[in-house]
Amino acid sequence: MDDESLARQAQSGDREAFAELMHRHAAPVGRLLAAMVDRRDLVEDLVQETFCSAWAALPRYRSHCFGAWIRQIALNCGRQCLRAAWTRRVWLSSDPPEPVGPGAHNGQHPVAPDQALLDDERARRIRAAIARLPHKQGEAVRLRFLLGESYPAAAALLGVPEGTVRSRVHAGVTRLRAELADYFEEYEQ
Q1: First and final CA of the chain: distance in angstroms?
Q2: pLDDT band for position 6 (50/70/90)?
Q3: Residue 164 and residue 174: Cα distance in Å, rounded?
């Protein structure tokens, strides 16, 4: 059964239909939120909050694409979390990297532990630099590069023109290059 049929059934109070929608969309919603807040414990809470909000909003659901609708709710939940954290002046830090052992793989070839640690450090620095970007630039950069959204898809999710997303991404990448230039010169030596 397609998402739209399940959404109509869920609107009629069918909890099993909504559970199926949750099952189908929990992973993409989680990836979207993870790119925004970068903390596993918050992501799990925000995924739950997203689906609770969606359940409450189902009577008003008029979309023709449940996936886009639920991602918009997730974006709003993530934004509220970031706004609350900013207001409290709390920096959202990332979880420590997963443990890396001698047998860790990058998908095809074993990765040496020292290389894995360097890669983890590099990723941590990039995520931290993205977190320091102005909110709108960081949001666009996360959608484009961490989630792999196209410019049109990112524009639809953010509710802004595609050109605005392109300019935010460009400005964000320019800032990231400037901020991380010294680190990458050091990293490559």
Answers
A1: 55
A2: very high
A3: 15
Mean pLDDT in residue range 33-37: 83
pTM above 0.85, yes or no: no
Q: Report H helices in the chain.
A: 3-11, 15-37, 40-57, 66-87, 113-132, 135-141, 151-158, 162-188
Give, to the nearest 10 degrees, the angle between helix 162-188 and helix 113-132. Answer: 140
Q: Return all residues near 46 (Cβ < 8 A) that are at least 6 apart.
A: 33, 37, 74, 77, 78, 81
What is the residue type of 63?
A: S
Q: Residue 65: count other Cβ atoms within 10 Å of its Cβ.
A: 13
The sign of the CA dihedral 59, 63, 64, 70 is: negative
**Rounded-to-integer distance, Cα 112 and Cα 105, Å:** 9
Residue 80 structure tokens? 């509220």
The span from the CA of 69 to the CA of 34, in Å, is 18
Domains of the chain: residue spans and CATH: 1-95 (1.10.1740.10), 103-189 (1.10.10.10)
